[in-house]
Write a structure and sequence with these properties.
Helix content is 8%, strand content 56%. It is mainly beta. The two termini are 39 Å apart.
Length: 508
């Protein structure tokens, strides 16, 4: 069922090859070789730890994770005419990011179910294309922009990934139209990242599918008012499954012969976002809504305001979330439990190198409107108050922060404190880093489910070259149910710009 650890080690060689190839390019690419500019970032992380199987034997785990990012801009040559160069003209850029992960640990020979022992082990290297698209700007005098390839959109109201095209049409009045469409990333391809799958998607029992998607939006890019209203719909097209290949096994033992081609709505929603910048950015109100057309529910609501008065800032926010799932998921009927939360923050710039904050929140959990609840349970609201305090210091050599947090009520109690620090031993070239966490928890389902969990991590960051660094971390977590959870990390990082002026925003 699983490959050997040695075979996985050989298969993971592309991760090292990518890092080495990027390093050679970074050291050897001349700045004058081409008119375009490029940025390359690569992280190679190794983990080592152990797990116990059902027979009490230790399983050695060795994981290698690679993250690679490439951004190339100003691909097209600049106009030779100085007058044309000052005008808006077409330009191209390329943006790519992917992950390559592999497990190299050994495997248990126990007669028990191996899936229960090694369910986190991958059978081989996993390649995930996070995004990879070609963009064109400056068309039609700057009023038209295009993006083609694997893209994603991540906002407070929506998050999705798709392979297709994105068209933005601007206007002189700070408003524009956005047209987009393609194949929504749904796990049907080996390179799909599971983080963008719809909730409730069953990739094990359901046949593979592909999801065509289209959408349209209106946006405002005025510096005082930023907003977007969009409609998006995706369809789930189930592929043919041979009649001899059963899809489900029902409790009575029957196995249906399979599904024919079927097209259904996987997701259909309308989202809106509006934020303003008032009184020289001292007051920032915002409002966001997400409506699920398929389930006829207001899935998300977010409203708030932030006020800055000198060294003080106050933020108030209200959020409501009602889960929605893949259109083929039964959770849309039996697992809808909305919750709301009101939050209040206060931040203070105490001194040049000190800042602090205080926050309070109140969460309200409702029983839901599905058939699994009685009429009284549907109306019942269960509160969960919480809060936190924190202070942060950043100096020339030492920086750190302390955070205290608390949550009570529905679900139980959480009371904890986090401490994190970094001390520069040899300036930015060598730093000592650490973290300490202590959490008291209690589950409201049973009086016996309570305890204290603690964790500590320490390590060093060595920048042996302006473009390269190495990080080593040792971590241990322990609590009521386990004596130790030791893990070792080693990370190699490379950051390079063809101009040599990436800046700290691009580095580490």
């Amino acid at each position: 069922m699983f490959s050997s650890g040695r075979a996985l080690g050989r298969q993971s060689a592309p991760g090292w090859a990518l890092i080495l190839a990027g390093g050679v390019a970074a050291m050897g690419w001349s700045e004058s070789a081409s008119a375009y500019e490029a940025f390359v970032s690569a992280d190679l992380t190794g983990q080592g730890y152990q797990l116990r199987d059902l027979d009490g034997r230790l399983l050695n785990r060795r994981r290698v994770e690679t993250f690679f990012q490439l951004y190339v801009y100003d691909i097209l040559p600049e106009p030779k005419d100085p007058v044309a160069r000052r005008k808006v003209h077409p330009q191209m850029y390329l943006s790519v990011a992917f992950r390559l992960d592999a497990d190299l640990g050994n495997f248990s020979s126990s007669g028990k179910d191996p899936f229960l022992l090694t369910q986190d082990l991958d059978a081989g290297p996993v390649f995930q294309l996070l995004y990879g698209y070609l963009g064109v700007t400056g068309l039609m005098g700057g009023w038209l922009e295009l993006k083609l390839g694997r893209q994603f959109r991540w906002s407070a109201m929506d998050a999705y990934q798709y392979d297709g095209i994105d068209v933005r049409i601007k206007s002189p009045y700070h408003v524009g139209i956005n047209l987009f469409g393609g194949r929504r990333v749904d796990g049907a391809l080996p390179i799909d990242a599971p983080i963008y799958l719809l909730d409730g998607t069953d990739t094990v029992q359901e046949p593979a599918s592909w999801q065509p998607m289209f959408g349209v939006g209106l946006f405002s890019d005025w510096k005082y008012l930023n907003g977007r209203v969009a409609y998006r719909r995706s369809f789930s097209v189930l592929r043919n499954r041979a009649p001899t290949a059963p899809i489900y096994t029902w409790p009575d033992g029957n196995q249906p012969n399979g599904l024919l081609d079927e097209t259904a709505t996987a997701e259909e929603r309308v989202t809106g976002w509006l934020s303003a910048r008032l009184w020289n950015d001292r007051v920032t109100p915002y409002l966001g809504l997400a409506y699920s057309v398929m389930t006829d529910r207001l899935a998300r609501t977010l409203a708030g305001v932030k006020v800055i008065l000198g060294r003080h800032s106050i933020s108030a926010e209200y959020a409501r979330h009602e889960p929605d799932f893949d259109g083929n998921s039964i959770f849309n009927v039996f697992n809808v439990q909305p919750f709301s939360e009101a939050r209040l923050w206060y931040e203070l710039r105490i001194a040049k190198s000190w800042s602090g904050y205080a926050r309070a929140s109140l969460r309200l959990f409702q029983g839901g409107d599905d058939q699994g609840y009685s009429a009284a349970e549907r109306k019942k609201v269960q509160p969960s108050p919480g809060g936190g305090l924190g202070v942060q210091y950043w100096g020339h050599s030492l920086s750190g922060r302390v955070d205290w947090y608390w949550q009570e009520g529905y679900g139980g109690r959480t009371l904890g404190v986090d401490m994190a620090w970094q001390y520069q031993i040899l300036g930015p070239r060598l730093s000592w880093q650490g973290r300490l966490t202590v959490i008291h928890w209690a589950d409201d389902l049973s009086e016996q489910l309570h305890g204290v969990t603690a964790g500590v991590a320490t390590g060093a960051l060595w920048r042996f070259h302006p473009r390269f660094s190495v990080r080593f971390i040792v971590e241990d977590n322990f609590g009521e149910f386990y004596k130790a959870d030791v893990r070792l990390y080693a990370m190699f990082q490379m950051n390079w710009c063809s101009t040599g002026t990436c800046g700290k925003g691009w580095l580490w």
